[in-house]
Amino acid sequence: MSITGEAIIGGVHERGAGGSFKAWDPALRDYLEPSFHMVDAGQIDRACSLAGAAFDSFRATTDAQRARFLDTVAEQIMLLGDELIERAMAESGLPRARLEGERGRTCGQLRMFAELLREGSWIDARLDTALPERTPPRPDLRYHLVGVGPVAVFAASNFPLAFSVAGGDTASAFAAGCP
Questions:
Q1: Which terminal Cβ of the chain has fewer Cβ within 10 Å, N or C?
Q2: CA angle at residue 44 from 38 to 48, to 5 degrees?
């Protein structure tokens, strides 16, 4: 796991144009490397525009493709192993068992949404057939859930893994086809 302190915008690593900060290790009472460079308003606007441009193609992926994507994210998180847990311990001061539990919860949520995609009931399809002889006539009505656009997720610092960037909000957005 390589922490660079850079943002990833449109798949490209770049240094934020705003100020910078370092994470603080409460156990060692010292700063952690590297410096994180905050993005500015222009970079945020560009990230939002790129997410908007990616929406139609991402929403057009099949449920099976999105399920594989979510499973892959969970697998990649687990492959980070102790390095992820140790960095989260250093940044948060939280104990190993708590963070391992959060990682398990995060991966469990990703896999749960993947399974929901494979199972299919999430779409909540409803068909009300037309009743032209009724007064007033009822038209043919069809309903199902769809993703409506990109989603911004703000991470929670008190749950650095379970409710952070890869948590349930992100998992559900990806499952719905929202980048």
A1: N
A2: 145
**pLDDT value for 158:** 80
The bridge status of strand 12-14 relative to strand 30-31 is: unpaired
Residue pointed to by tokens 């009300």: 128
For the record, the structure tokens of 7 come out as: 């943002």
pLDDT of residue 66: 98
122's tokens: 């999430």
**Structural domains of the chain, with CATH:** 7-125+141-176 (3.40.605.10)
pLDDT digits (tens, 9 = 90+) for 59-99: 999 999 999 999 999 999 999 999 999 999 999 999 999 99
H/E stretch holding 7 reads: strand 7-9
Per-residue confidence (pLDDT) for residue 41, from 0 to 100: 97
pLDDT at 34 over 90: yes
Q: Which residues of 132-169 are buried (b: 16+ CB within 10 A; e: fewer)?
A: eeeeeeeeeeeeeeebeebbebeeeeebbbbbbebbbb
